[in-house]
Structure formats: structure tokens, C-alpha cells
Amino acid sequence: MPPSEFRKILVAQGGGPTAVINQSLTGIALEARKAAHIGAVYGAFHGVRGIVNQDLTDLGKETEQDLVKVAETPSAALGSTRDKPDRKYCQEIFRVVQAHGIGAFFYIGGNDSADTVRIVSEAAQAANYPLRCIHVPKTIDNDLMVNDHTPGFPSAARFVTQAFMGANLDNLSLPGVYIGVVMGRHAGFLTAAAALAKAEPEDGPHLVYLPERPFHLESFFRDVKQTMERHGRCVVAVSEGIADGKGVPVATSLATHVEKDAHGNVELGGGALADYLGKAVKDTLGLKRVRGDTFGYLQRSFAGCVSDVDQREARAAGEKAVQFALAQDRDGSVSIHRQGSGAYSATYGFTALEELAGKTRHMPDAFISETANGVTQAFHDYLKPLLGSGLPEIRRLRRHPVAAIGEKAK
Amino acid sequence: MPPSEFRKILVAQGGGPTAVINQSLTGIALEARKAAHIGAVYGAFHGVRGIVNQDLTDLGKETEQDLVKVAETPSAALGSTRDKPDRKYCQEIFRVVQAHGIGAFFYIGGNDSADTVRIVSEAAQAANYPLRCIHVPKTIDNDLMVNDHTPGFPSAARFVTQAFMGANLDNLSLPGVYIGVVMGRHAGFLTAAAALAKAEPEDGPHLVYLPERPFHLESFFRDVKQTMERHGRCVVAVSEGIADGKGVPVATSLATHVEKDAHGNVELGGGALADYLGKAVKDTLGLKRVRGDTFGYLQRSFAGCVSDVDQREARAAGEKAVQFALAQDRDGSVSIHRQGSGAYSATYGFTALEELAGKTRHMPDAFISETANGVTQAFHDYLKPLLGSGLPEIRRLRRHPVAAIGEKAK
Predict the structure, then answer these.
(1) What is the pLDDT of residues A316-375, one digit of tens each?
(2) Which helix (H) or strand (E) holds B222?
(3) Is A20 an 8 Å CB contact of chain B?
């Protein structure tokens, strides 16, 4: 369908919410208003399910001011879903889309949502059904192929960085072992963000374990022991997805029953991993003060921790999605790339859906330390500009020792 | 000892760190500089332990600019301790204090630290040892007697509020049951702060369980079921300290081994309570999507979530501590009171140590709903001004339904 015939477009949100997924929604809605021949922007509640259920809202009736405020609100304003359409589901989508005269469908989501867009796109082509299908990237896991990074990740990374800034200071104040378990099923980007909390060489996290490297309890105990000997304390960042040499996730082997979502992903939530690792360290190394936290849903939905760079890029990704839909004669995904090697700036590309649908990008080797328990300077350089402005400034007291008088107690 | 003889003062921090405990440290250090006859301000590292170990720093060598930056940094800059002195320990304290010619000791901490100050104060009087002992309030639990509230609580409350703002939106986006476990051993103030996340009547948290009321699994299941029927989703805030009718904490009966700290407090950390309640709800009510988080150390140490009201009051409490030490001829604790009933403002009192040392203040009945699963408007009115300025503004999409065309899928 040529752009001039887009009378109505439809937008929906899929997968896990992020701090900036509504920026992309607003970007699409506001950019579409600029195109004279786009007469209506509909939103579907709860992703593709809202299409088949005809649970639609007319986003044209929202003011620009309200849409800008919605953009600044975390979590999917249209609601989300984990549904993945099959052939029958797609037929229902086409029936509704045709009835309403919708020419383009924008789906904001991760690699599972990209796969949904691919399925709908292929079904539309097979049925010779005129529907432009555009995927708009979003995931705190940062695991989309082709992209330098994905909207939602920088804000979640900022949460993890700020959390470890505080955890490091807390641990400095009351020394012991602290283990923070971070989201990331297969990709370690979000866990690695903990490393950006380090301001001084002795700061934690002292150890960072990613799903990209096999996790062995013996190496973990040795690493913690060495860190305790060196610093008298130890702050650890662990991905929920850490797995043994055979690829079996440590959390899965702990779960009393394994829960899978509609995409076949194993649920790794709950505090079991942190509790298990904490208890194992305590018992094995004979340490007294060991604490563990599982960051859980806080890291993706906490209201009030956001990267302004992420906000701008998520908005831009929505705007570009509409521009690509109007300018390109194919379906695809908006992708984010880093321009040049100087001061940070982003550019936007348009990528074939099959290049990223259902695929997972991992941390490149260059970002992971050779010892497999930390990250490299290259990762710091990669992430730093994405975290945005106004990060907390940590200032410690300097030590101005007062000379002891008389004998010291010990 | 008359004020004119204070040549040197000593400050230390005790108990769990907070976001603003360094404001009080800086308040003491800067106020002391204004008193011409106070010649030196020493800091002891890791509380009373730093005194007996003569691990002291000369805070006079820090610039005012640096102290102001330290004030804005979360967690105890001098380090903390859970040590509680006995008679022998006190003798060691006096030995060091005397050797260095220290006339006043300021201890920033909670009710355990207030008890430490009481012990040191009584031991000093019994030994006819001239040492002015001042307690400066701090605790995220908000459980100090006499005080309207305590520095550290408003910032932790703000974290909990912001967390539930996001959790509510996340749950709205992907409906189900969400259970957030909040710190608070015996006092429910921090858990109750979750209620401030509600912007609209259908917002979560829909249920709030406090340690001040007995917790029964059957009532819990019934409450969740009713909420699911009403809203199709349910957000729950639970205090880690919830206990059954006999006063046995639910978390304790779950713990495989019970860990106690030096004050005899049972450790309630770990994700067990959230996981247990989540699984119980899932199994009993046959619900599919149930998620739980334990906020853990994030709520007391997260860098970058602070109430500006809390910052100012914590600083003021430090300043007042020095003023009281100079003006009063007795030991005591700085207390915070609410002035009048109009626009919020705080005043500072000076309270006898025995009135709060080792005691726990609970949520007053007027703050707890009659159904024992929520809070009252009086609590909202109490907490709202403490959370400070610049809370995230939540804006939802309005529903502008698009009329269905043809049959609805379901």
C-alpha cells in the first residue's frame, strides 16, 4: 500500500514494560499527526490481543500535552501481552484491521514482539493483505540483534548502576558480602551495568557474573574469598540467567517447579537465587554477614529513575517508525546505531524483521573481562553515554587520621 | 561539663545506613565550626568500635564544600556498627575519650543506637566522667518514640512510594498479582508508604499488611480474591515483619535457620516471604500470573531517591544536636515534632534518652484501616508532606473507545 493511502494506523505495545516505552508510543502518535493523509491513530489495548478483541482507543482524542505526560510515565500505557499469534490469530487480526481500514501496524516490543510482527507481516503477504508492519525496538535486556542498544535498556541500566552505587556504600558502611541479582535471561548487559557504579578502584561491584560465561560455584567461592582478603568486603552482581557449563541455569535447577511463559521462556523470578548463593557463600567460606537482594520488577518499573538519553531515543524511534512506514515500501524494524567514535550520538536504521525476530544478542567478548567475573573498559565506554545526565555524585570522607594516644585497643 | 570547656567533640554513626544520615554528620560538623570554643570535630569510624580502636579522623580537615557533598551521598560516611557497649567496652571508650580531651559525643542512629548512648551516658555519670552524650535520630523504620518522624524514613518512604507507583503501572500493563515485601520489623510505617503511590481509586497497592495487625493466610487469600474480582489484578504491600495471631513472624517460621544480630533482632531478609506468599496465592486461588519482589537493601541505600524535606531535617537535626549540647546541662536525644496543623513545618526538641532508647514506636491505630489491610486518610495526610518535592507525575491514557465493527472476537 503506498503511503498516500494510509488513512488509519494502529499502534500497540508488547512484552515487558520499560521506563520509556510510552515515549515511543507518543513519538508515533505525534509524528502521525504531522502526516496530512493519516486521518486516525488507533491504539490497541494489551497488544495483539486488543486487536482481535477490538479493544481499541482513538489516540487522536488525546491532547499533545497529555501524550507528552504519558510519554514520561513508565510502563506500557496501552497495556501489554505475551500473546504470540498463530495463523488463526492472524486471520482475526486481518478481519479487524480490514473492517477499520487500517493501513499500518506499529508494534513496540522486544525480540518476541519483533517475531510477532514478522508472523503478522508474513501472513499478510501470504494472504496478499495490504498491511504495513513496523516493529519499534524496546527491551531492558538490550538483546536485540543489529541495534547498538535498545530503548528501555539505558534507563534500566541506570537503575542498576544507582542501586549498586548505594549497595557499595551500604556494604562499605557495614562490611560483608552483598549479592545483587539482576534481570537478564541470556544477555548480561543489564547485570554488567552494575560495574558503572564504581567510582574508585576499591568500589564494588567487585565481581560481575554474566550468562555469557559458565558459572561455577567453586570459582565463585574463590573469587569472593580473594575479594574479602583484599577489601574486607565484597559486592557481587549476578545475572538471574547464570548457567553452569552445560547451559543449565542455576536458578532453574533451584526452582521447585519451573514456570514457562507463552514463548517457552522459563520464569527465573523470585528470590531463590540470591538466597541460595548467599547461603552457599556463608556456609562454605564461614562468613558472618552475607546479604542478597533480587532486584526483580523494580529495575524495569521503578517510577522516577530514567535516562534522558533513553527518553529522547525512544521518542525518536517512534517518530522514525512513522517516517519509515511512509517512505519505505517494505516491513521492518527501526534500529539504533552509534554514529562515529567521538562524542556520543545515535542514528536510526530500518532493518529486515528476520534479522532480529526471535533472536538474542549477547554481550560481545570485548565487553567481558578475561577472568569472566567482570567487564572491560570498552563496556564502560559503551554504556556511560547512555546513562544520561544527572547521575548521583558520590563523595566520601577523606581519612585524616588522629594519632592514637596510649595503647590501641587492638 | 560547661559548654565553655568543650574543646573537642566526637561524632559517630550507628545502625543501618540511610539516604540522609550524612546530612546529620555534616550538620554537626558545620555547626560545631561556628562555636568559637569547639576546637576540633573528630569522627569515629564504624561507630563506638572506632572509638575503642582509636580509629578516628579529623573532620576539621574536610572543606565545607566537601562536607556538603558528603551530606548528599547516601549511607554512613564514617561507617557503621551493630556493636552495643557493655561496662568493659564503656571503660575503653572513656579511656580514649579522656586521652583525647573529648567533651561531647554525638551518636547518629536509631533506637538501638539511642540505647548505646544511654549506656555510655549512664556509665559516664556513674564513673563521674565528664562526657556530654547526644543522640541524633535516624531510622528508615520511623519507630522512634516521641518523634513525629525520624530522618531517613521520608527518603526510604519515597523509594517505596515510587516503587509501588511503578509496580502498579507494571501490573496494570500485565495484570496479575504483585506482592512487594517492604522492610519494617515491628513498625509498619515504611510498608504503609506504599499507599501513597495511589493516584486513582483503582490504583494499587490494593492491600497493605502491617506488623501492627495479626496476619492470617485465610484473610489474605480472601482479600486477594475479592480484589481480583473487582479489578482483575491485585497489588499487595507486605511488611517483612507480619506475624500471626501469636506474634510469630511469618518470615521466621519460614526461615530454615534463624539468624540474630548483636541486639537479638531476628534477620528477616531474603526473598523467602515474597516467594512463599506468591506461591501460596497461586496454588490456593489457582491464579496464573503471580509475582513477588523483596525490596531488601535497595530501599535504604538506593542512590538518587531522596526527599528534600528529609535532607533538610536531617541536616537541621545535626545542627540542633550541637546547639543542645552547648545550651543544655544534660544528655538527651534530638527529637522532631510537627508544628501546628496547617502547612507542614518541623520543630526540634530535646528528649531524655530513656524515653526512646531501645523502645519501638508503632503505627497508631488512626493510621490503620478498620479492615486491617490498608491505611487511612490520616496516614496519607501525615506522610504526604514528608515525601518532598518532585515526585514522579503519573499520567494514563484516557479511553476513547473505537466502536467495534462486525462481531467482537469474544
Answers:
(1) 999 999 999 999 999 999 999 999 888 999 999 999 999 999 899 999 999 999 999 999
(2) helix B217-231
(3) no
Set of cell numbers at residue B65: 564544600
pTM of structure: 0.95
For residues A205 and A333, state if they share a domain: no
Q: Does B275 touch chain A (CB under 8 A)?
A: yes
Q: pLDDT tens digits, residue range B70-104?
A: 999 999 999 999 999 998 999 899 999 999 999 99
Q: What is the distance of C-alpha A250 from the center of its chain?
A: 21
* Domain range for B120: 3-140+305-355
Residues constituting chain A: 410
CA–CA distances in Å: residue B322 to residues A171, A235, A246, B8, B316: 29, 36, 62, 12, 10
Q: Does residue B259 sit at the A interface (CB-CB below 8 Å)? A: no
Residue A311 at interface with chain B, using a CB cutoff of 8 Å: no
Q: Do B277 and B237 fall into the same domain? A: yes
Is B392 a domain residue?
no
Radius of gyration of chain B (CA): 23
How far is residue B82's CA from residue A234's CA, in Å, rounded to a whole number? 19
Rounded Cα distance between B35 and B325, Å, is 11
Matching residue, cell 536504521: A349
The cell numbers describing B260, all together, are 540474630
Checking ipTM against 0.85, whether it exceeds it is yes
Closest alpha carbon within chain B to A268: B291
C-alpha cell recorded at residue A370: 578475561
Domain count along chain A: 2
Cross-chain CB nearest to B75 (options A100, A170, A393): A170
Task: Take residue A240 and report the three cell numbers written for it.
Answer: 538471574
Give every strand in the sheet of B207-209, ordered side by side: B207-209, B234-239, B177-182, B290-294
Strand B177-182 with B234-239, pairing: parallel
pLDDT band per the 50, 70, 90 thresholds, residue B339: very high
Cβ–Cβ < 8 Å for B84, B115: yes
Distance CA A184, CA B331 (A): 52
A310 is a catalytic site residue: no
| CA–CA distance, A59 with A70 (Å, rounded to integer) | 12
Domain with B288 in it: what CATH number?
3.40.50.460
In a domain, A396, yes or no: no
d(Cα B300, Cα B16) in Å, to the nearest integer? 8
Q: Is the peptide bond before B130 cis (omega within 30 degrees of 0)?
A: no
pLDDT tier, A6 (very low <50, low <70, confident <90, very high otherwise): low
Catalytic residue, chosen from A83, A115, A141, A331, is: A141
Q: Which three cell numbers stand for residue B75?
A: 549511607
Asked, as a colleague might, if the bond just before B249 is cis with ω within 30 of 0, I would say: no
Is the domain of B114 the same as that of B72?
yes
CB atoms within 10 A of CB A213: 20
The CA distance from B277 to B132, in Å, is 48
Give A140-183 as a DSSP string: TT---SS-S--TTHHHHHHHHHHHHHHHHHHHHHS-SEEEEEE-
Taking residue A334's Cβ as centre, other Cβ atoms within 10 Å add up to 28
SS3 content of chain B, % helix, strand, coil (to 5): 40, 15, 45
Task: Please say whether the beta carbons of A262 and B288 come within 8 A.
Answer: no
Question: What residues contact residue B370 under an 8 Å CB cut-off, 6+ apart?
Answer: none
Asked if the Cβ–Cβ distance from A75 to B173 is below 8 Å, we say yes
